[in-house]
Design goal:
By secondary structure, the chain is mostly helical. The protein has helices spanning about 5, 15-30, 35-50, 55-65, 70-115, 120-150, 155-170, 175-195, 215-230, 240-250, 255-270, 275-315, 320-340, 340-345, 350-365, 370-385.
Length: about 400
């Protein structure tokens, strides 16, 4: 087989129309951030359509968690690339991102024009309260397959705990823990097998070249969005303090209250939490600023996959890379579990803990869907906000 053929996606028979429809569906119903997106992508690509096997999907999660930027978006782009190459990646990525972008820009226009409507605040607080439950649910869905493939029970548990602890405490430095777990497992396996080299083949990271976008506010919006897209290691919530510092304290595009509303919109709308940057862009420069912020923030994710995804197959087939992912994989799953802790700490109203408890019951005991759970939580938030005068104080 020639080298070009070996780099083609594994399932080229899937039509672009199918990718547009299925990835667009996830973009429309993907409430709850990365845990929900991972669960929906796994249900589509592994469980229902069987386009990818469970091991490859977990490998993709681990690889995307090692890259800067929104991991669930990169995972969506990568899965589409596996089916139809670069064109499929572009179609799938755009279909995944655009529905949430349209909704969040429409809501930004609604609440930034005047005082935020009470129902929007209530829905955001209610849906946000359920997100930690979604994280736990997503981690539980990925744990079984990884556990069955473990090479060593003690090390697997240690990697899982390390990922969970780092996601709960280290934030942007989580990527170093994932890399460390992978390198430890690589060293252990290479040493045990008596191989001479423990060198890990690298993934080529495409350089990101910034063009002159003009002066003034648009250039500032592009810079903030680029930092969000290129530096957001460790999950979507890591970019919240980064954006808050720029949008509120440095550029004064938004008040603190408006920024909190923007975060709420990022929770109640489908798509990545990084879409919050579109609200920041809208506050700075209207519709053009919102669209520019989204395009710039997601550009690194497309670049990493479009220019480097062909190397992923080579790494995945290498025994050293397999060993590396045997460590990074369970650590990435642990990070999904661990993300529930800072998400829970972000809750600011006592009634939100009751909503969280209800979401856990719906997802883990009654086995209801993620979308139904989040919509129910949002509805509860609206009812509480409209009937209890002090609910959002």
């Amino acid at each position: 087989m020639d080298s070009a053929a070996s780099l083609r996606p594994a399932t080229p028979s899937v039509s672009l129309a199918t990718i547009l429809r299925e990835w667009g569906r996830i973009g429309c119903i993907g409430f709850g951030g990365p845990p929900a997106h991972i669960r929906l992508l796994r249900d589509l690509c592994v469980e229902r359509r069987k386009w990818l096997d469970a091991q490859e999907f977990e490998d993709a999660i681990a690889a995307c968690n090692l890259l800067p930027g929104p991991a669930s978006t990169q995972l969506a782009i990568f899965c589409a690339w596996r089916l139809r190459g670069r064109l499929g990646a572009l179609v799938g990525g755009v279909a995944f991102i655009v529905p949430g972008l349209i909704i969040i820009l429409a809501l930004a226009a609604l609440f930034l024009s005047t005082s935020p409507p009470l129902w929007v605040l209530g829905a955001g607080a209610g849906a946000g309260a359920a997100v930690p439950a979604v994280a736990i649910h997503a981690g539980a869905g990925l744990t079984g397959a990884s556990w069955r493939r473990r090479r060593n029970t003690v090390r697997w548990l240690l990697y899982l705990l390390a990922g969970a602890a780092s996601a709960a405490t280290l934030g942007p430095w989580l990527v170093l823990v994932l890399l460390g777990c992978g390198l430890i497992e690589l060293t252990v396996q290479v040493t045990a097998s008596g191989r001479d080299s423990a060198k890990l083949p690298g993934i080529a990271v495409a350089p990101i070249l910034s063009a002159a976008l003009g002066s003034g506010v648009l250039l500032s919006v592009a810079w903030v969005a680029f930092k969000v897209g290129a530096l957001s290691y460790g999950g979507g919530f890591v970019i919240i303090p980064l954006m808050q510092s720029d949008a509120v304290s440095h550029y004064h595009w938004m008040t603190g209250a408006q920024f909190l509303n923007a975060v709420a919109l990022g929770q109640i709308t489908p798509g990545p939490v990084v879409q919050t940057v579109a609200v920041v862009g809208y506050a700075a420069a209207g519709l053009i600023g919102g669209i520019l912020a989204s395009v710039v923030a997601f550009s690194p994710s497309f670049a990493f996959v479009l220019l480097g995804a062909h190397r992923f197959d080579q790494i995945r087939g290498d025994h050293r890379a397999r060993a590396f992912l045997d460590g990074a994989g369970p650590a990435a799953i642990g990070a999904i579990y661990g993300s529930a802790i800072p998400l829970t700490r972000a809750l600011s109203h006592s009634w939100q803990y009751a909503v969280l408890a209800g979401a856990l019951i719906l997802l883990l005991l009654l086995r209801r869907g993620v979308v139904l759970t989040l919509l129910s939580a949002a509805a509860a938030g609206i009812i509480i906000a409209l009937t209890v005068s002090t609910a959002l104080h």
